[in-house]
Write a structure and sequence with these properties.
By secondary structure, the protein is α/β, with parallel strands linked by helices. It contains three helices and nine strands; from the N terminus they run ββββαβββαββα.
Length: 181
């Protein structure tokens, strides 16, 4: 089975350098419109699908991103693996701007300000989320980052909070405690 890699770009990543045989796909999903058109192409012999998470021009707030439509669209286009890129901060002093972190766990503290399931409306499902990251892809990304000369950290907790990010008070302390346990 051919691997098709999906890349969801975060803030500042609106196109993929080096992509050839470029096409553009606009589609509707049962969950509404995705963030933008999907860009298809080939990078070093690998078929790719790229989507800017916040739309070209960074026009969508995080709470406005239709994550379900984005993922459904990727699946509809045959994507077998997804790499999501984010520009975020760290609670650990040894991880500084410019470092790459390949997380292995997630905490969502947005209190469901957006739909967070593909189920409901008569469809019940239970999805295991103990290990939400593909270990094989994680190792490949980590090795590629090191081979490119980047400082990379494997394993980490991505914590998503309702805005404002890194607000004063207890939120960052709770996250730091969770990450260290």
């Amino acid at each position: 089975m051919e691997q098709i890699i999906g890349v969801i770009g975060g803030s500042g990543l609106y196109e993929m350098e080096g992509l050839t045989d470029i096409g553009k796909v606009s589609l509707d999903t049962p969950f509404g419109k995705p963030s933008d058109d999907f860009i298809t192409g080939v990078l070093d012999g690998v078929r790719m699908v790229f989507l800017p998470r916040h739309g070209r021009g960074h026009r969508l707030l995080p709470s406005e991103v239709n994550y379900r439509a984005n993922l459904y669209g990727m699946k509809k286009l045959g994507v077998t693996r997804i790499i999501s890129v984010s520009a975020v901060g760290s609670m650990k002093e040894e991880i500084v701007p410019g470092h790459i972190v390949i997380p292995d766990q997630f905490i969502d503290r947005t209190n469901a300000t957006r739909s967070n399931t593909f189920f409901g409306n008569g469809i019940a499902g239970h999805v295991q989320f103990a290990d939400p990251v593909c270990a094989e892809l994680s190792m490949e990304l980590f090795a590629a980052a090191l081979a490119a000369g980047a400082t990379a950290h494997r394993g980490g907790l991505t914590s998503v909070w309702k805005a404002p990010p890194f607000q004063p008070g207890r939120s960052p302390i709770c996250t730091a405690r969770s990450a260290s346990q």
